[in-house]
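pinned: reference chain
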Amino acid sequence: MQIPHGIQYSVPPRLPQRHCYSRSSRKKDSDIVLVSQFVVNLQQANPERFESFMIMLQGHMLANALLCPDLSQAPKTYKNVSFFFDTPILASILGVQGVHRKDAAGALIRLLLHLGATIATFSHTRDELIQVLKGAAEHIDSADGRGQIVLEARQSGITKSDLILLAGKVDEELASAKIAVVETPEYVHKFQIDQAAFEKVLDDAVTYSNPRAKQYDVNSVRSIYVLRGNIRPDSVERARATLVTSNSGFARAAYEYGQNYEQTRDVSSVITDFSLANMAWLKAPMGSPSLPKAEVLAFSYAALKPPRELLDKYLAEVEKLQRGGRITERDHQLLRSSTLAQEEMMRLTLGDDAALTEETIIETLERVSTEIRQEEVLRTEAAIEKQKSTQKALESAETKNNILLERLYWKCARDAKAISRGCGALIVALLITGLLAGIGIKTSNKWGGWILAIGSGGTLVFSLASFVWGTTIKGMLERIEGAILQFLLKRESKATQLEIRASH
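pinned: its structure tokens
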């Protein structure tokens, strides 16, 4: 069961700074926001229950893998595959879309590199990222400034100069994250897509306020077609090149368009980062124990941000209320600039713009004003800060623990592979010795005679095993490698008092 585009697993991302968003049903968006609120509240208020929730989720993911034969038969690595990251993911890596998005992107990159993949981005995507950062810098101090980067910058204290400096060292930051910048492929007529047809499909799935953003997306997709050439991959592992985005609408459009083309009918040119993280984690769960948690938190916090369409309507309604005299200038400023007001608005509407009315905004104002006027607000903030500090310390300790688990796991995996290869060489040597004995070669040397006898016996035993059970050298070495890996992991677990298990 291939999941080429990953729509099933990803919430439509909010990317106002690129002026685009995915269209989806209100009911689906409301359900996503409701579940995300539950996850975030659980993580903040009851860490123990949140950990239980994550165990249940990971168990569900592993159960899906057992029920999908294609996943178990797929290669265990992404060797010879290049994943090209889209602009939103690059922005997450730079840390301008929130700490949870950055953590999730970092965990995904580390796992993909361990699995042999190449992480890259097109040069035109890098250029778009620089423009996005500069555009956010220009609007960060503007009353009309909005978008994920702008809102996150205001909330975390990032200044205009910080964004400008970051735009100036994008290449350095990408290199530090082990992301290669690849020149955008030239147009090759044989592999060119019907851009007009693709843009029509794209317009049905994604709304662009900035036409240049759409052109960048089209350029990325046609570049993947050029890099894939004549191949028709039957899995992501054999796709040679794939674009990774956080925009499920974009991924869905690329998949639907690709159904008309041999080379992308089975594996879409675009998949979501959420789907890729899911599939990669199933290859080596203990190789990245923090990835599911990072992805779930990034998903949930992103879902609680008001989408561009809803935010535009909200601000328009606030303006109407102020002009009509129903709210004061102070109320107007509070509703426009307070992140608390926007969070309350999302709680009341669940992201559904049909639920956003003048009465909803008045109720939002009343709730926010009441909370601000409460005498215990300072103590509440102090408690929240203390909780955040404690949580940060716990997360730091957990991160260090997960990094140690990753290092130990991959060290044991490398050692097990090296030992199994040595065993393989020994087995081949014995079989060759047995064959030499079988064709009548003899030696007067005592030790040489023993070696020939052992080789002959080993050849006989292997032949019987192959005849009865279908044993092969490759299968034998895989079992040896698995047994050695289990032994090494148990030894490391005992030495470090950490629970390390093989992924299979």
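why pinned: The first helix runs from residue 26 to 45. The CA atoms of residues 423 and 477 lie 8 Å apart.
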